[in-house]
Design a protein that fits this description.
The chain is an alpha+beta fold. The protein has two domains: 38 residues, no CATH class; 447 residues, 4-Layer Sandwich (Glutamine Phosphoribosylpyrophosphate, subunit 1, domain 1), CATH 3.60.20. Helices cover 35% and strands 13% of the residues. It is globular.
């Protein structure tokens, strides 16, 4: 039905239309006689609320509040975090609870034996800290162990680094939490006893049944009696529940005896790494031909570190160190700033070209220079310097580069190169697939921020569980290189240069944003897509998350065979056709995806400058969730 507002009396005001919609024949204040009101009602039928369109409308609402907000991969994790906030916990307490719940319910993307790099902003001390949360290679892991295959597998008993989740969450609680480990584990234990299977995970079980059948302990866990879990059924993990209870009881009993929260957390943590759980993991791995042993778990200890940070577009962006890909985001932001992207229209041809070329330059340097700083010297000062960014920005030409271009950050440190020359390359051997990731972001009423990017599920390649522990093991070993010249070459007790990359943003030192996403090599690219719109143009958070994206496949990937696709740029088809044509004319090899087709799942929460209220957003590209008040 067409609204006829164009007669001699003119259109009705928004207030009059709303009143008519709500009141029908009720009188509209200030509209004249009853006859006039009746005539107005005839010419302007009531607008249904569902037909109203607001400025900047998004597919999902931006969540706002002043108490706390949790954004994560599944509703189970969000609920776990919100339960802790309601119980009086802070952002770190809630973030740890959400992470542990995700380890139970998002097992296609993240398992309890995986890793969980985390960044925390402490509102009291106004300090940002990194919990490294990335496990190391086992003591027996050397390049020669994989020489015959020519590639490190992405799944199975030799796919994993030392489990880091329990250690990382214990460190986070000791650093900034207020609750005990057993308190924040309650929801995870309940979910391990049984949660309602959801459709996405049920479909993963269907696709991975054959691959998982290679490993009896995993098959018996996920396909009890050889049956597929079905959507809507209760799915139980009794072995994992038992493992979780052992950890929680060690924490609980120690706290009851000592009233020392930190000591109790440590006792719970040690029950996993130094007790019977670790012995059973080590024995199972050895029996299945893996390299991990009990001693690897017993000696493992993560640590708290200072973040890598740059000031860009009037904000301070904080990431994990050069053992992660996180600094590549900082470099790409620096380069884009130096190239003048702040003056460009978001989503325009020149804007997307500059964004893509900045990413390519930064990620080529990632592959050339990044590695565990405990095992070599990384030119971090040079890589993050504004002078180096300006030098790299001058390499952005009107045409897309189809070559890998590596810089010389050593020159910006005033010293010669100190590592062997390494040229990233694709392996000739075929490698096994890798799995996926999730993300947890929390803000509380005091402005504490928690950002965690947990990973090591089995979306591809099948699950592997260590014996009867119920613990699915990591698959992060495949990120290492086998080339001895690489700063990321595999070595005993070394951290791989992980793709996992939590983020915290400050504005003039005040808490502003916690943001993360799954997506492997895509993670920091997708975060950059969103951050540019928020930091430069102050776009609403949810609108920035839903805006059309690009993603470069130009540089060598992190997993298995380290594939590269020079010049290839994924682009969502909501980018206007004329912009896509312009990018093609510039030499970009466009891979046009569906309207929300980039493989990502941004979640973000933060503090609104000025009023100090809270906000959160969640991507529509995957089944992401956000809730709070």
């Amino acid at each position: 039905m067409t609204n006829r507002h164009d007669d001699a009396q003119g259109p009705l005001s928004r207030r009059e239309l709303a009143a008519l919609a709500l009141g029908g024949a009720a009188m509209v204040a200030g509209s004249g006689s009853v006859a006039a009101q009746t005539a107005a009602a005839v010419r302007a039928p009531a607008i249904e609320p569902t037909r109203l369109v607001s400025a900047g409308e998004t597919l999902r609402p931006e969540i706002v509040g002043n108490f706390g907000i949790v954004a994560a991969g599944r509703h189970y994790a969000v609920a776990a975090g919100n339960r802790i906030l309601l119980a009086g916990g802070n952002a770190t307490d809630a973030g740890v609870a959400a992470t542990l719940a995700a380890a139970v319910t998002e097992i296609s993307h993240f398992g309890f034996g995986g890793e969980a790099p985390t960044i925390i902003y402490d509102a009291k001390t106004k300090k940002v800290s990194v919990v490294n949360g990335q496990g190391t290679a086992p003591g027996l892991a050397t390049p020669d162990k994989f020489a015959a295959e020519g590639v490190i597998p992405g799944n199975g008993p030799n796919g994993g680094t030392i489990p880091a989740v329990v250690d990382a969450m214990a460190l986070a609680l000791q650093l900034n939490g207020t609750m005990t480990l057993s308190q924040v584990m309650e929801t995870a234990i309940d979910l391990a006893d049984g949660f309602v299977m959801y459709n996405f995970l049920a479909e993963v079980f269907v696709s991975q049944q054959k691959a998982t059948s290679k490993y009896k302990s995993a098959y018996d866990t996920y396909y009890p009696g050889g049956k597929l879990p079905k959507t809507g059924e209760i799915f139980r993990q009794p072995n994992l529940a038992r493992t979780l209870r052992i950890i929680a009881e060690a924490d609980r009993s120690t706290f009851a005896r000592t009233s020392d929260r930190r000591a109790a957390i440590q006792a719970g943590r040690d029950a996993f790494y130094k007790g019977d759980i670790a012995r059973r993991i080590g024995a199972a791995m050895e029996a299945d031909g893996g390299l991990m042993r009990y001693d690897d778990l017993a000696r493992y200890a993560g640590k708290v570190e200072a973040p890598a940070m740059v000031s860009v577009f009037g904000h301070e962006v904080c990431k994990a160190g050069f053992w992660s890909q996180g600094p590549a985001l900082l470099m790409a932001l620096n380069i884009a700033e130096a190239a003048g992207i702040a003056a460009m229209t978001p989503g325009s041809e020149i804007y997307l070209h500059t964004l893509a070329e900045s990413i390519k330059l930064a990620f080529d340097d990632r592959n050339m220079f990044f590695g565990d700083p405990d095992f070599g010297t990384v030119p971090g000062k040079g890589l993050l310097s504004k002078a180096y960014a300006a030098e790299r920005a001058r390499q952005i030409a009107p045409m897309a580069s189809l070559q890998h271009r590596f810089g010389n950050p050593w020159a910006h440190e005033g010293r010669p190169r100190t590592t062997p020359q390494f040229v990233p390359h694709m392996l000739k051997r075929n490698g096994g697939p890798s799995a996926d990731t999730t993300a947890i972001e929390v803000v509380d009423k005091d402005g504490n921020l928690f950002s965690c990017t947990p990973s090591s599920g089995w979306l591809l390649g099948g699950a592997y569980i260590a014996g009867d522990t119920g613990v699915p093991m990591s698959n992060r070993l495949t990120i290492f290189d086998l080339d001895p010249a690489s700063p990321n070459v595999i070595a005993p007790y070394k951290r791989p240069r992980t793709t996992l990359t939590p983020s915290i943003v400050l504005k003039h030192g005040a808490p502003y944003l916690a943001i993360g996403t799954p997506g492997g090599d895509n993670q920091d690219q997708q975060i950059m897509n969103v951050l540019l719109r928020v930091l430069i143009h102050d776009q609403p958070l949810q609108a920035a998350i839903e805006a059309p994206r690009i993603n470069s496949n130009h540089f060598h990937g992190s997993f298995a065979v380290k594939k590269d696709e020079p010049g290839v740029l994924e682009i969502e088809d909501r980018v206007p056709a004329d912009v896509r044509a312009g990018l093609t004319a510039r030499g970009h090899k466009l891979d046009v995806l569906g309207p929300f087709g980039v493989s990502t799942g941004i979640v973000a929460v933060g503090v609104v400058p000025g009023p100090g209220t809270l906000r959160g957003g969640a991507d529509v590209r995957r089944e992401r969730y956000v809730m709070g008040w």
